[in-house]
């Protein structure tokens, strides 16, 4: 048995108290210090232990290649540049049809801000990590940079309580959101909740209106709502042509149109994502790397 009355023995690495402390630290590691934000322009947040992982090569497409979403593009770009320059700006919710460039637009406007010499940092947080967002904001609020907090493909199910953490980020809590942080979120749902969830609240609550208001008020806290809607054939072909122009792929227009239409017919859908998938196949067949 270890003699804990011997100070030297009690402090030995294999002493019971040290082994217990080491085990507890493995179960709940201490948060890592804030990174050097000059190391990268983008980071991914990971809790337990809290840390920001740098991303040196962000997967994105050029802003000029995002066609067919001109109004949303121009609005979000203006809002982002305002914020990056230290001016007032709104949190933004990009909602609507899947594959129409919501996530791509957030990353593209961030790249445009960097191209203009504005040291804006993009920080991605996963939906399942939203309950740790307060700790993330504390870390970002102490930094001398401006940050776009990016929550991609955001939605909440019946038993989710994560949306309450997000509400505090947007507009609530005595601490508030740090002035150097803005939130951009993407979702297929305008109110971030499935309709049957809202209908269920209305049917079962003592005061139906109050229950629905509490759920829907989350999306109301975004200052900008940018809608993305399913595109028609003309917009789809413009997207394909935009990708070809951005990557300097030259092909007969009639051949390009015929192949692009055939591709979308086999997919049964038109969207920016389908246009990019067609272009990726086309570029590969022409020996290009994208």
Count every helix, treating DSSP H or I runs of 4 or more residues as helices: 11
Beta-strand residue percentage: 5-15%
**What would you call the structural class?**
alpha/beta
What is the H level of CATH, i.e. the homologous superfamily of the largest domain? P-loop containing nucleotide triphosphate hydrolases
| Percent range of helical residues | 40-55%
H-E string: HHEEHEHEHEHEHHEHHH
Average pLDDT over all residues? 82
Task: Give the radius of gyration.
Answer: 24 Å
At CATH level 3, the topology of the largest domain is Rossmann fold
Shape: globular
Measured between the Cα atoms of the first and last residue, the distance is 65 Å
Give the neighbour order of strands across the main sheet.
2-1-4-5-6-3-7
Low-confidence stretches: none
The tally of structural domains comes to 2
What is the second-level CATH architecture of the largest domain?
3-Layer(aba) Sandwich
Q: Tell me the name of the CATH class of the largest domain.
A: Alpha Beta
Give a description of the structure.
The protein is of the alpha/beta class. The protein folds into two domains: 42-228, Rossmann fold; 233-285. It is 45% helix and 13% strand. The chain has helices at residues 7-10, 16-27, 70-84, 102-115, 133-141, 162-171, 195-204, 208-220, 233-246, 253-267, 272-285; strands spanning 42-46, 51-54, 92-96, 120-124, 146-151, 181-187, 224-228. It has a seven-stranded mixed sheet with strand order 2-1-4-5-6-3-7. Strand 4, helix 5 (133-141) and strand 5 (146-151) form a beta-alpha-beta unit. Helix 7 (195-204) runs antiparallel to helix 8 (208-220), helix 9 packs across helix 11 (272-285) and helix 10 crosses helix 11 (272-285). 33% of the residues are buried.
């Amino acid at each position: 048995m270890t003699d804990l009355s011997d100070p030297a023995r009690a402090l030995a690495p294999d002493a019971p108290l040290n082994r217990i402390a080491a085990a507890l630290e493995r179960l709940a590691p201490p948060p890592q210090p804030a990174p050097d934000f000059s190391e990268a322009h983008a980071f991914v947040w990971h809790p337990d232990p809290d840390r920001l992982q740098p991303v040196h090569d962000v997967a994105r497409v050029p802003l000029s290649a995002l066609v067919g979403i001109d109004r949303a593009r121009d609005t979000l770009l203006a809002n982002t540049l305002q914020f990056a320059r230290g001016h007032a700006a709104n949190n933004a919710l990009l909602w609507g049809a899947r594959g129409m460039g919501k996530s791509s637009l957030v990353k593209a406007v961030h790249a445009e801000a960097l191209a203009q010499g504005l040291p804006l940092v993009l920080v991605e947080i996963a939906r399942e990590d939203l309950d740790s967002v307060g700790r993330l904001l504390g870390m970002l609020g102490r930094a001398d940079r401006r940050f776009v907090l990016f929550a991609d493909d955001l939605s909440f199910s019946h038993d989710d309580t994560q949306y309450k953490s997000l509400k505090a980020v947007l507009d609530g809590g005595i601490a508030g959101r740090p002035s150097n942080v803005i939130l951009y979120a993407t979702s297929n749902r305008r109110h971030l909740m499935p309709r049957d969830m809202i209908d269920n609240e209305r049917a079962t609550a003592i005061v139906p209106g109050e229950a629905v208001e509490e759920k829907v008020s989350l999306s109301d806290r975004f200052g900008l709502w940018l809608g993305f809607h399913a595109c028609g054939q003309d917009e789809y072909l413009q997207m394909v042509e935009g990708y070809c122009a951005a990557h300097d792929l030259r092909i007969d227009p009639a051949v390009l149109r015929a192949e692009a239409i055939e591709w979308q017919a086999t997919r049964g859908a038109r969207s920016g994502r389908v246009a990019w998938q067609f272009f990726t196949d086309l570029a590969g067949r022409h020996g290009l790397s994208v």
